[in-house]
Structures
1.
Amino acid sequence: MSRISIKTKNDLPAELAPLWDKMTTYGAFENQAGVMAHRPPIFKHVWSLLVDLADDAVVSKRHLELALVTVSLLNKCTYCVSHHAPKLAIQGVSEEGAERLLDYKDHPELDAVDRLVVEYAIAVTNNWNKTRDEVFARLREHFSEAQIVELTWRIALCGAFNRFNDILQFDIEQGVPVREAAE
């Protein structure tokens, strides 16, 4: 049960209603958005950023979802794993494959670039202050600087979402299958 009440589109200032509608095309995140709606500037800026990045993505959906599910598994965020594992399945990684992303080194569903993305997501989440230049040399072989910036930002932002979601304990939306992230 959510520790904060869930607002709806009708609770937002009228000028934010179109953003709510656009947010729903991103996925079933109404409970998360409804909590953010307690502070319209948070709702406005976070969701504007997310939908703008989705509209003008420079990182492939597969690599983005690999990163987001990895971070959410590391942080044990059931809300985010439940929302992003199905998006990863659309990108060709099975539900079982998503569950074992942290064992990326010999993961049969991942290619070398996928493994690098997972490795980088782990580094940004757990070892940001100890990550060596060698990782960036490998990233530069496959990604532009703009892609590295976007990937890094989305990984870091996902970690913030994991904490926001879990501390406020809002429920996973109806119709979204729950995928436990905790071991």
2.
Amino acid sequence: MITLLRHIHRAYSMVVILAFSVLFYPFYYLASRKPAGYGLLNLMRKLNSFLVSTFTGIFYLFEYEEPLVKGQTYIYCSNHFSNFDIMIMCILAKGRFHFMGKKELLDNPVLKLFFKTIDVPVNRDSKISAFRAFEKVGDNLEDGMSLIIFPEGRIDGHQYPPQLLPFKNGPFRLAIEKNIPIIPVSLTDVWKKMWDDGSKKGTSPGFCNIYVHKPISTRDLNIDDADLLKDRIFGLINSKLVQK
């Protein structure tokens, strides 16, 4: 019975997500035409995420180690176990922000609008593509636009309960090169409400706990420290994850 109810809730959630995507799409399109509209675009992403959360009955409780500084450019790094993670990070991020994600998102009928404009797609199988993508992200960071990235690079749709995958090196080298503080974010138990896209286990309403670690400065680091920084961020994020 519980499994059936979870799949009913998932079907309902997909309808809600689709309905709000259709509702917001014309406004997304207009705001994405020029960089001057990106601030409005992000505000609408936040609003859309909040409304989907409200109508699906899935709410987020944020715990901060320390307040985020208004106007500060950050690199937000979090684990990635659920499709809800994108909406959560939209709600969490402050100021101007953009995502970096796999190039396959260009095939998504809604997300491709973002990844052709404000967000940056990356093909990790191509060194040239990856270099150009990180170069673009670096320019955005220098322009004061925070970055949201899932350093695992993907959701593991086979391991359940999910476990943190090894991190890619790129965001940590970039943080050091651009002297940008990193905010580790532990999406501690979101997977219990929706694992991956919810197709295997369904979804359920309730509260999800989000732990926002204090920013990690990269000011005194050099490129040789990138692996140590990566391991430190991995450990912090993993320390708050609920495994069962």
3.
Amino acid sequence: MVLLLFVDLDPELKALDALGGFFVLRTGVPPRGPLPTLASACADPRSGTFPEVYADPITFRVRKVEQSIRAPEPRVAASVAQQGLAARLWSIALGSAALCGRVPDLDPELLFWDPDAGAPDDLWLGEVRFRPVADLDAVVRAGLLVPLSAALRSRHRVSAALLWGNAGSALAGTVRQLDRWARVHGRPEVGERARELAGRLLAHPDLAGTLDPVTLRRRSCCLYYRVPGGGVCGDCCFERPPRPAPGRP
């Protein structure tokens, strides 16, 4: 177990940088401290554990995204914010598993998150330790996405099915990126491992059924089509943006 103070980086984590921005994991003490951990961000905002500037990091992030994309209502921004963070978490963990054969322990008590950063989300790991690939589901889905989903649902009118659809879509996107990188760099085994591991992850009841098994198109919608000029995503369940319900902008 190694505590790193401003010293980047564990060589295996540094190797993730080559995979793209969503795979980068910084280590040590964030320079823009104090930042909330994901554990504190997902806690009850009445607990008083947050730095004063953020008050409630989850709501802070949703409002930032809402303003940035001009979302018509908070639940659209909540969906977009959650999918972006889910993509970061899957990328780091699955990327490390496929490339290095082990998973960084993304303990939510040690994983710092800057809710005021741009995209992709800025994450810092305060202490570097690793877990076996078999713990991939426990690290990401159970350890991070379950409490994140609960926190978002407690604050915003967003369904569990939508959030797990986002998580499944983010996982599939991570696999596609790893597969592209593997083919370009002559590392087919990396893409093969990523696909195999993702298949196991998608078998969990939270994620099972979120994607079409053949096309990998999602079976729910992230609501991005409601953003001005947003349209539908490449894996959306809709071919074209649905018409708004009567009375809804």
